[in-house]
Amino acid sequence: MQITITAVSMFRALAITILGAIAVACLWPFHSPKNEVSWSADRNGVQMGRYGTVMSSGSFRMPESDEDPGWSIEIWMQPSRTRAERHFFSVFSPASTDLLSLRQYADGVVVSENKEEEYTPTHKSLYVDAVFRPATPVFLTIAASGRRTSVFVDGALRKSTEVLRFSKRALAGQFILGDSPLISDSWSGWIGGFAVYARELSPSEVSQHFASWSQRPPPTLTEDAHPAALYLFKEGAGNIIHNQVRSGVDLMIPERYLVAGKLFLERPWDEYEPAWSYYKSILINVAGFVPFGFLWYGYLSLSFPQQKTRTVWTTVILGTTMSLTMEILQGFLPTRSSGMTDIVTNTAGTTLGVVVYRLSEGVVHKILSRVHGVMDERQVPIAE
Q1: Which of 62, 71, 217, 285 is the least crowded, having the fewest Cβ atoms under 10 Å away?
Q2: What is the mean pLDDT of residues 330-354?
Q3: Given its phi and psi angles, is residue 339 left (phi above 0), alpha (psi -120 to 50 degrees) or beta?
């Protein structure tokens, strides 16, 4: 018995292949990966990998007071890459958006207060450049009040602004080290200490704390410093980083990587960012579904040559359904984002693929006829 490879079967095989390729590209890995956080062997601290996060066991709350004396945080850290664009500290609460967000931007640090500042520094954020140097730990201090926000690097004031003002509510939420909430933005590097103070530290205090953190053993805080939380990362094992201040929340190292408050089918106007990375993602999502529309329309139009209009709509609906399915499944994967913008762009890509096929249909049929003729001469024998 002998068979002949036909144009329909060729397109069917290619269409199924492109469907599988898109599924793998959208969903890999198909599970929540292991949380890549390990204890450092040669010093106190943890090493954050590609997908790594450390979270507080509950929401942090500043001590109650009639006044708002501000707050300060200190992080002893060293990024794996001197230049990167990732969050290394965030505060998350489902009910608030004006919370603290810190991220590495190139070799500098961006201090902002909400997701709108996620990609590039703007007039609403505070950017300090040349913070990180190769193979060098950095002692970063953020001191804020209702009047100003200041950034200190290794005990020295680098920049202060009155444009960005934080109240103590900026820290009222879940602490996230090495990542951001809502979407995966995992930062890689070493974190060796983290402290929170219930007031704005003075420049002289910041300098003294830097000198203390630079020495061994780790620093001890007095009541005069008003420590609200202190994590020395000295446990060396386990999944709990203890708060050295009584009645404070501990930090937890989840076994599997996860994203706090992960977004599900985020709305297009919320996803929009005026940055090249956003527009690049749009182009990739459109281009990625052009082959899908081309091959599936080609397969369906060759299978049902008398139903061109119905075939067009079937292909577009198939592309939209495929995209919607991928976005729903991505909502359960911490390493993937789930948004409605991709559904729109994938549908546009599918439609463009249909248009490309229809415009080049004559050329495609000529190529298929030629391939078909060659395959007829070389029939594939199959043993009965």
Answers
A1: 217
A2: 96
A3: beta
Q: What CATH code is carried by the domain that includes residue 57?
A: 2.60.120.200
pLDDT tens-digit series, residues 280-330: 999 999 999 999 999 999 999 988 988 989 999 999 999 999 999 999 999
Tell me the whole-structure pTM to 2 decimals.
Answer: 0.85
Question: Is position 375 within any domain?
Answer: yes
Peptide bond into 227 cis (omega under 30): no
Backbone angles phi, psi at 297, to 5 degrees: -65, -40
* Rounded CA separation 112/94 (Å): 17
Are 137 and 77 a contacting pair, CB within 8 Å?
yes
Residue 13 has what DSSP assignment? H
One DSSP character per residue, 307-334 reads -HHHHHHHHHHHHHHHHHHHHHHHTT-T
| Cα–Cα nearest to 101, from 215, 238, 111, 93 | 111
Q: Range of 279's domain?
A: 2-31+266-381
Residues 203 and 185 in one domain: yes
pLDDT tens profile 205-227:
999 999 988 887 666 655 556 68
